[in-house]
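for the writeup, i need someone to sanity check this before i put it in the appendix. the sequnce is what the collaborator sent (i think, or maybe the updated version? ugh). structure was predicted straight from it, no edits. if anything looks off just tell me and ill rerun, i have time this weekend
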Amino acid sequence: MARFLRYLLQRFTVVLLFTMTLPLLAFVRYASAVEDMVLIPQGEFFMGSPAGTDSFDDEHPQRKVFLSAFWMDRYEITNAAYERFVRETGHRMPENTNPAATLWEHGAPIVGIADHPVINIGWDDAVQYCRWAGKRLPSEAEWEKAARGTDGRRYPWGNDWNYDLANSASY
């Protein structure tokens, strides 16, 4: 009888450790995902643009939208982070149909751009990266709230375009 109880106790301990380890691994995975992320609080914000502005037609009408709180990366995904994803999953490297605009060679970013935001990826590539990283892409409303804030400004820094505050070749 004592041997049987000892056997059960050993088996129970193994099962208990296993079941307690799974949530801990999930928590560690989540905690690492929150690093370099910012919590966007729940609440209303102005989505879209007011009529009569030089905005696109699909930005009308401007309206108040309520969102629950969510986490968003503080920075864009870098070439170095995307390279880890490519290496670990075998996913294709970022390429452009114009070879001169492809900034990766032999499965890695060219020298000097590891900390730059990754470019030349599509929506499906971004979704796959997010799944691998334990994250997801933001919705259109989440993206706009995080970028514009809750006070209805047009850009993260205010209402006037400023080339010095954006990484853009347009406008």
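The longest strand covers residues 43-47. Helices lie at 2-34, 79-89, 123-133, 140-148.
thx in advance!!
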